[in-house]
């Protein structure tokens, strides 16, 4: 009876994860389609936020579930690394891009959104197929290879460059002055510190992905030989 209960619990968890990852993959596919359609129809890099910003904001907020998944042991990732990634992206998206109209049409938004969308279509597709126990080898390879190029592009000329461009605007507008009024520093100071530590926090995630790459692709090669 206990074994049957555990089996049912596993099946429900797998079904939930399959549904969650499939919906995320679909959402990011729609975002990517909107970005590319907008690019080719307008020949402009300046309308990515208008075409996909709200959907990407929703998908990114929903991704907090992944922190919970790791914290309760639903997936083996743990909570720290997903929280770091979620926090960095959400701050960039909601506190900077959504707040400042002046940065929404910068090419950095297009670069970030394009890199994120391609990465997430691959990542969530891989997770969804893995839930079925039958993930195509090329998706596994893409999952643990495409990030090598996409992650630095998204972070360097994307997120970090945009936050740097936002600094004079934040200073001029004294953004979030009410929230920071009781603190000995402003949001402008906070954003400068974020820019200083961002590469180090990102490098931790990036190196973790290389570690995963070795493990996952080695496992895949062993299975293939068997």
Largest sheet: none
Question: Could you give the order of the helices and strands?
Answer: HHHHHHHHH
Shape: globular
The stretches of 5 or more residues where confidence is low (pLDDT under 50) are: none
Q: Can you describe this structure?
A:
This protein is mainly alpha-helical and 226 residues long. Helix content is 82%, strand content 0%. The protein contains 9 helices and no strands. Helix 3 (64-71) runs antiparallel to helix 4 (80-97). The chain is globular and about 55 Å long. The relative contact order is 0.10.
Short key terms for the protein model shown above:
single chain; 226 residues; mainly alpha; 9 helices; 82% helix
Give the helix/strand layout.
Blueprint: H1 2-42, H2 48-62, H3 64-71, H4 80-97, H5 107-132, H6 137-143, H7 147-173, H8 177-180, H9 187-225
Helix pairs in contact: 1-2, 1-5, 3-4, 4-7, 4-9, 5-6, 5-7, 7-9
Please outline what is shown here:
The protein has 226 residues and is an all-alpha fold. Helices cover 82% and strands 0% of the residues.
